[in-house]
Amino acid sequence: MGRLVFMFPGQGSQYVGMGKDFYDAFPVCREVYDLAGKASGLDVAALCFEENEQIHITEYTQIAMLATEAAIYAAIKERGVCPDVTAGLSLGEYAALIASGVMRMEDAFAVIRKRGIFMQNAVPTGGAMSAVLGMDAETIEEICQKTEGTVSIANYNCPGQIVITGEKTAVDAAGAALKEAGAKRIVPLHVSGPFHSPLLLHAGEQLGEALRDVAIAERFLPYVANVTADYVTEAEEVKPLLTRQVAASVKWHQTMLRLLADGADTFVEIGPGKTLSGFLRKINREATVYHIESVEDWKNYVER
User: Relative to the CA of 90, which of 75, 243, 246, 271 has its CA 20 to 30 Å away?
Assistant: First the structure.
């Protein structure tokens, strides 16, 4: 018997109008957006559905994405579909916490709002990120370590796609060295800062303080943490891992390998875009992958 995984994307796939058809179709989704608004002090529905530039600014992107993912999940849950295990990339890990019952939805919304602000405010001048295509992780790690300045791996996405992060001069220098060493392409990313870099350690410390009084359930469905690519099953593990996650590498490739090795055979990506579905197909083409972003996607999943 296989295992069902719900997986949730991080920022980058957001767009105006995401989640609107779920909002219109299901009262429970409207309740989630309202709850997100109350917890964050923002009009989250307007942020997601009305034309604006804020949706692409980190401190607003994170609450918008989490509200959308949580709303779609709420509609799915209401109809009796539940996962065996969850995982989420970067901010998507908070949607995984909600789906696993680790954290109350309103607490997750309040925390992610603060996380977005801390990360936005901590962004150092000259920070950058680049995707490295067509090179193994060991070589990338070695070249980053040899490069002067702060540069490290932000995301282990899938075979042949790893993201580096850090000071712009160091990221550029590492990119040039990687290209010379045989990388297929180096693609600078249009981001507002060097996310998942040691440069954001202070933002992680601030988040740790914000998490101090947040209630964590004693019992919950297992989820796999970005920082360790391992299951989290004990309440006392949650906050330290979330604190570290801000400045640590996201081990998504390793997370998928762990789940596949443990018998997971059906994966449902919940939220905007098909980024995680694409990664998984490069990791293992035998896995069954579904994507639920629209009500039509949900109907197709039910009728499969």
Answer: 75
Q: Each residue of 195-227: pLDDT tens digit?
A: 999 999 999 999 999 999 999 999 999 999 999
Environment class of residue 241 by beta-carbon count within 10 Å: exposed (0-12), middle (13-18) or buried (19+)? middle
What pLDDT digit, counting tens, does each position of 222-253 carry? 999 999 999 999 999 999 999 999 999 999 99
> What length is written for the chain?
304
pTM here is 0.96
Same domain, 131 and 114: no
Nearest residue to 23 via CA among 60, 68, 63: 68
Q: How many CB atoms lie within 10 A of CB 60?
A: 23
- Catalytic positions: 90, 196
CATH number, domain at 158?
3.30.70.250
Tell me which residue of 88, 55, 59, 60 sits closest to 73, measured CA to CA. Answer: 88
Let me know: does 42 contact 61? Beta carbons within 8 Å.
no
